Amino acid sequence: MTALLEVERLSVAFGGLAALSEVCLTLAEGTVTAVIGPNGAGKTTLLNAITGYVRPQSGRVIIEGRAVTGLPPFAIARRGLRRTFQNGGAFNDMSVLENILLGADKALRSPFFGILFGFPGARRAERQAVAEARAMLARAGIRGLEETRARELSFGQQRLVEISRALLSRPRILLLDEPAVGLSESEREELRQRLRGLAGEGIAVLLVEHVVDLVMAVSDRVLVLNSGQVLAAGTPLEVRSDPAVLEAYLGSA
Amino acid sequence: MNGVSPAAKAAQKPAPKAGRVLRWKNAGLFAVLVLLALPPFFVDDYIQFILDLILVYVMVSVGFNIVLGYAGQLAFANAAFFGLGAYAMALCLGRFHWPFAAALVTAAGVGGGAGLLVSLPALRLRAYYLAIVTLAFGELLRWGYVHASSLTHGSAGLAVPAAGVFGLHFATDRARYWLFLVLVALTLWGSANLLRSRFGRSLAAVRDNEAAAAAIGVSPALAKIGAFSWSGSIVALGGAMYALLLGRISPESFGLSQLLLHFSIVMIGGLGSLLGSVLGAVILTAAPELLRDIPGLEEILFGVLLIAVLLFMPKGVAGVLGRFSLLRERLYLS
After folding, report:
1. DSSP state of B4
2. Whose CB has fewer CB within 10 Å in chain A, the N or C terminal residue?
């Protein structure tokens, strides 16, 4: 298994306050890794530091052997990494179809003038992207909402749109921030199957999650954060029986 | 992961045959263009001038809408781009004696360059700050027109000689109308193509949610630079048309009242709608002429329209039409 994403001793501080200290993490091809921890443990900060939204104080983020630390978010995304946001990564005033098409856009290589003058090649590429986007919508079970504005969707549907958009760009690495919030029992089970399916396609999945049942059922590895530090890391079984984890997190849950 | 609701199922339609729909649409657009080419054969000189002016303002508001409506940038450098285009045209023709086509390309290029320049503060500044900086840019240019008098003749202004290309001479408002119609049609067509492509989607994505746009690999900076340059060159072309139409330009034409007119057209027509800009330009250019005999009514109409739109139809005239979903799909109102 090749490591697609490596996080080396990453530290983040907000105004002198340590939000993350010396966090290490490796995401291998075809695996699901979960980050859990109590509120304020630094889970989302870790995600933001990896993806360039927060500048780390020290440490390195390496994607497929190349350091991306300090690059802007869009440049990191272009290395084959996609993420979702905890509260709303949807483009509210755009239609659902446009929202998802944005995921295909980086693969559309039609030249500027081909698009400007509506050359057949550019039109064909666009039609193909639309077909792919529709298929992705169908796969997510939100067919028939193509022309709906994203702001009119339910919270759960918006998250599905966001994940579908991310998947349409065929990422090598997928980071999900609390994808199970607000999902029903059966929807969680579908999410679990979907995540395993993605890992089966070779994607390295990282999820930040509160729902412990889901994490234990879906993950190959679990990283437990507490006050910005790694409390424990290992397989779900190892983490579940770790006394420090029981004390700090699971015990109090 | 959700089940498909019955309503959603009902909404599913078989995908139309793309090729055939496109052919009909193109045929329809071509027919409209042919109809629009006919008025010069019927109308009198006064109406002809108004029709020319409408086309100028269609150009200007389409350009402004790209920055204001599609990219969502509160930037008010539009009168500046407009003035630069007009002065570029006047200088290239009157002083440098360049061929007409070269003057036109230069005007668009100058506008694009100015757009690029204005986009740089837009990368850092938000909302009100950007609005102030861009307003200042426009006023600075106006000061420049007045004081660079060796080039611009200061407040007295510049004469713009009539011009021609390929043996066609645009010396009358009738001839200019056809020229303007071709320029506007090409601009609308190209802009619609770009806006419906990945470029347009990137712009809207950055407008709606900059963080999420970056997360899918869209560079917010590049999207803004592109939008401003594209907008600037279109608006400057509008300015060049304006200079040709009036035959004389002076600094006072490119101040705040000009900007207010552009802004009103875009807002009343509809933010983020190309057709809205066309309708807005028609309404706000024609209406004052109809009311010309009653002093003061023009300003009142302006104010009332703007207030009414902002209060009751935030998406403008196009937004009201767009409520009929069929129209929306057919005409790209949204």
Report:
1. P
2. C
β-strand partners of A204: A173
The residues that bridge with A27 in the sheet, in sequence order, are: A5
Domains and CATH numbers, chain A: 3-88+169-250 (3.40.50.300), 91-152 (no CATH)
User: For chain B, which residues lie within 8 Å of any Cβ of chain A, measuring from their own Cβ?
Assistant: 1-5, 7-12, 15, 18, 22, 189-190, 193-194, 196-199, 201-202, 204-205, 207-209, 211-220, 272, 329
| Dihedrals phi, psi of B295, to nearest 5 degrees | -60, 140
The Cα–Cα gap between A58 and B235 comes to: 47
Q: B311: Cβ–Cβ under 8 A, 6 or more apart, which residues? A: none
Containing B181, the helix (H) or strand (E) segment is helix B173-195
Q: Which of A53, A89, A143 sits opposite B8 (nearest CB)?
A: A143
**CA end-to-end span of chain B, whole Å?**
29
> What CA–CA distance (Å, rounded) separates A200 from A208?
20
Q: What is the residue whose two structure tokens read 């010309």?
A: B292
Whole-angstrom Cα distance, residue B203 to residue B192? 13
B154 vs chain A: nearest CA distance in angstroms? 38
Q: ipTM of this predicted complex?
A: 0.89
Distance CA B188, CA A174 (A): 39
Q: A93 and B8 in contact by Cβ < 8 A?
A: no
Whole-number average pLDDT of chain B: 85
Q: Determine how many CB atoms are found less than 10 A away from the CB of residue B3.
A: 9
Q: Which helix (H) or strand (E) holds B213?
A: helix B210-215
Least confident stretch, A91-100, A152-161, B71-80, B111-120: A152-161
Residue B294 phi, psi (nearest 5): -105, 105
- Cα–Cα distances (Å) from B299 to A31, A118, B304, B312, in that order, read 67, 41, 9, 20
Q: Who contacts A27 (Cβ-Cβ below 8 Å, separation ≥6)?
A: A3, A4, A5, A6, A33, A173, A204, A205, A206
pLDDT in tens, B41-60: 998 999 999 999 999 999 99
Give the pTM.
0.87
- DSSP output for A168-210: HT--SEEEEESTTTT--HHHHHHHHHHHHHHHHTT-EEEEE-S
User: A66-67 and A58-63: which strand pairing?
Assistant: antiparallel
Question: Helix H segments across chain A?
Answer: 43-51, 73-77, 96-104, 112-116, 120-139, 155-168, 185-200, 212-218, 236-240, 243-245
